[in-house]
């Protein structure tokens, strides 16, 4: 690492620490509301059993008819059997049921390994039995999950609120920017969830969608651009930005198409504005339209233009949504070098030969320069999983637990960097072209993915 | 305008070079996590132990 970059990293430490703390707080929130939701469901079950047992005072005790006992008397002892307390009986009932299910799983009668039962704490159980009323915090947890206010929403909305109200001191700014790509190791680790066959299955559909939408958007943007009498620079940047992968593609293409700096910054502002609006509205639109998780994943994968925003929206919706969106995103960002190649050919090589000059294109160099390396990590994870290196536990640890840690830190950075001032930079003709093309693509892709249905995009 | 465009081209190149460096760090962090998982240093309980 160079001296400058070391200095740069040192400047980023306060912001990174801030993102880690915010990420942890949000994950703690997530952990609490998930626990409360489980408690709520368990309380409902207990109350249901209680209601069914008319005139019974201790329903769960009744559920264990023989009445589990504290300890069986040994031979020769004449001790009177003491029935267990209601709470011990409740625990014993669950333990017995779990044991039975494990035995069935061992015999091959159950396909999935049974999960350990969720058991209420003793004080909560006793309060529930005494009052027949589910505690408020459990109901609150369920409401929060219903409104999708999980760690993703808390970090994005909270970060945006902080940034645009009290603001963030300058000392934290470099670190919050550096925190955003911490999402990427999460994307790589998620690779441990796939095998090549399901990657190919969804990947093929993703590939078709990505190709259709890339070319569809490029054509659309070109037509609108020409109608609005815009120059090639702006059209090229917007076509790449709205067609492939937002800001990365726009950055890659801008020098090739000789975009004017002002047009370029208008374009990036527009892409960020669209992505931010999509991020906060698409999960609710998806729910309103009744999209399944895989269908929603396919939708955001094709219509949200920025990787961080796409991953955030998909995670917000659910884990299956993230699995599908991730494949589409990988296919899409893999297209960046091809789009750059196309732009070099269209704007430089073809343009030069029309003028009687000769311009050469170093295809391999472009691919080497622009290919997003982290994709290789993702493919390595899929391959390791294919060879059976990962157990179910590993998949869970990498793809559900540590993924959340990386995402939480990254989302904290994303939220803290949504500045309304930046979004106001969206403007000019780029705004008209970009918003129209991106909205059109979003509506069309919603229709197509819903028509194709869950089965096409279901990873497992 | 020419100077401004040249500066802007440099900025675009730097963005890609930074992304390349970033990706290398991403691969290193992912590899370390996988190794810790495979060697059993991080388990299912590690994550839950981080919260109350």
Structure description:
The complex is a heterodimer of chains A (460) and B (52). In chain A, 74% of the residues lie in helices and 0% in strands. Chain A is built from 21 helices and no strands. Residues 54-73 of chain A have low confidence and may be disordered. Chain B is mainly alpha-helical and 52 residues long. Chain B has helices spanning 2-38, 44-48. The mean pLDDT of chain B is 81. The chains are: A mainly alpha (460), B mainly alpha (52). Chains A and B meet through helix 1, helix 8, helix 10, helix 17 and helix 18 of A and helix 1 and helix 2 of B.
Mean of pLDDT of chain A: 80
Overall body shape of chain B: elongated
Order of SSEs of chain B, N→C?
HH
Major sheet of chain B, described briefly? none
Radius of gyration of chain B: 20 Å
Structural class of chain B: mainly alpha
Tally of individual helices of chain B: 2
Biggest interface, CB < 8 A: A-B, 41 and 33 residues
> What is the rounded Rg of chain A?
27 Å
What is the structural class of chain A? mainly alpha
Q: Residue ranges of chain A: pLDDT <50 for 5 or more in a row?
A: 54-73
The amount of helix of chain A comes to over 70%
| CA-CA gap between termini of chain B | 58 Å
Query: Stretches of chain B where pLDDT falls below 50 for ≥5 residues?
Result: none
């Amino acid at each position: 690492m160079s001296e400058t970059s070391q200095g740069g990293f040192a400047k980023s430490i306060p912001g990174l620490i801030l993102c880690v703390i915010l990420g942890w707080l949000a994950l703690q929130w997530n952990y609490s509301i998930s626990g409360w939701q489980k408690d709520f469901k368990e309380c409902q079950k207990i109350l249901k059993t209680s209601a069914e047992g008319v005139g019974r005072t201790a329903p769960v005790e009744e559920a264990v008819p023989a009445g589990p006992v504290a300890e069986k008397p040994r031979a020769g002892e004449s001790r009177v059997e003491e029935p267990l307390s209601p709470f011990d009986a409740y625990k014993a009932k669950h333990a017995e049921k779990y044991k039975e299910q494990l035995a069935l799983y061992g015999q091959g009668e159950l396909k999935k390994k049974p999960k350990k039962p969720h058991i209420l704490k003793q004080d909560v159980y006793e309060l529930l039995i005494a009052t027949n009323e589910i505690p408020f915090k459990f109901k609150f947890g369920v409401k929060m999950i219903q409104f999708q206010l999980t760690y993703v929403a808390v970090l994005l909305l909270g970060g945006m609120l902080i940034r645009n109200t009290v603001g963030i001191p300058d000392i934290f700014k470099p670190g919050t920017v550096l925190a955003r790509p911490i999402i990427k190791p999460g994307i790589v680790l998620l690779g441990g969830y796939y095998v090549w066959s399901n990657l190919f299955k969804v990947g093929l559909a993703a590939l078709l969608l990505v190709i259709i939408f890339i070319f569809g958007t490029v054509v659309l943007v070109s037509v609108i651009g020409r109608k609005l009498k815009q120059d090639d620079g702006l059209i090229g940047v917007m076509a790449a930005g709205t067609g492939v992968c937002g800001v990365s593609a726009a950055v890659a293409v801008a020098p090739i198409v000789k975009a004017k700096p002002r047009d370029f910054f208008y374009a990036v502002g527009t892409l960020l504005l669209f992505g931010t609006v999509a991020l906060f509205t698409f999960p609710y639109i998806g729910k309103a339209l009744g999209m399944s998780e895989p269908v929603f994943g396919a939708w955001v994968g094709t219509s949200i233009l920025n990787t961080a925003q796409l991953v955030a929206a998909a995670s917000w919706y659910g884990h299956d949504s993230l699995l599908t969106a991730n494949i589409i995103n990988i296919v899409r960002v893999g297209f960046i070098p091809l789009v750059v190649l196309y732009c070099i050919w269209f704007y430089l090589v073809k343009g030069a030969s029309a003028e009687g000059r000769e311009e050469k294109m170093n295809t391999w160099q472009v691919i080497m320069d622009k290919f997003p390396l982290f994709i290789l990590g993702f493919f390595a994870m899929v391959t390791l999983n294919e060879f059976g290196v990962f157990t179910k536990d590993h998949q869970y640890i990498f793809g559900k637990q540590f993924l959340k840690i990386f995402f939480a830190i990254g989302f904290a950075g994303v939220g803290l960097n949504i500045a309304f001032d930046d979004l106001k930079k969206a403007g000019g003709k780029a705004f008209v072209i970009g918003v129209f093309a991106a909205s059109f693509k979003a509506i069309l892709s919603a229709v197509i993915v819903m028509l194709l249905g869950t089965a096409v995009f279901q990873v497992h | 305008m020419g100077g401004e465009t040249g500066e802007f081209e440099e900025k675009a190149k730097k963005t890609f070079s930074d992304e390349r460096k970033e990706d290398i760090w991403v691969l290193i962090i992912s590899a370390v996590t996988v190794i810790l998982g495979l060697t059993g240093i991080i388990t299912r309980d590690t994550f839950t132990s981080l919260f109350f």
